Amino acid sequence: MSDPILSQAKRWGFLCQRTAAGPWQITPLAGDWLLEQRSDRWLLSIKGVPQVSLDSTEVLAFLKLRSGGNSR
């Protein structure tokens, strides 16, 4: 897992795994959202409904907020 987003997400305690189709997904241990990698962007879905496409900076900000703001 060399991608900086995936590495940071894992350090913050999120699950990072590839789907059967190939893209990476980031999910919380408990929650109803997921981030799915789409080329150089990430699609945020909540309760299975796509919401917004995020760039890497936005993804890290989103994950930091959901990690409790821990800057590790």
Uncertain stretches of 5 or more adjacent residues: none
Number of domains: 1
Query: How far apart lie the N and C ends?
Result: 17 Å
Shape: globular
Tell me about the biggest sheet? 5 strands, antiparallel
Tally the helices: 2
**Helix percentage:** 25-40%
Quaternary structure classification? single chain
Order of helices and strands: HEEEEEH
Gyration radius over CA: 11 Å
**Strand-pairing-aware structural class:** alpha+beta
Strand content is 35-45%
Averaged pLDDT: 92
The tally of beta strands, per DSSP, is 5
Trace the largest sheet across and list its strands: 1-2-3-4-5
Characterize the structure shown.
The chain is 26% helix and 36% strand. By secondary structure, it is an alpha+beta fold. The chain has one domain. The protein has a five-stranded antiparallel sheet with strand order 1-2-3-4-5. Strand 3 and strand 4 form a beta hairpin. The protein is globular, with a radius of gyration of 11 Å. The mean pLDDT is 92.
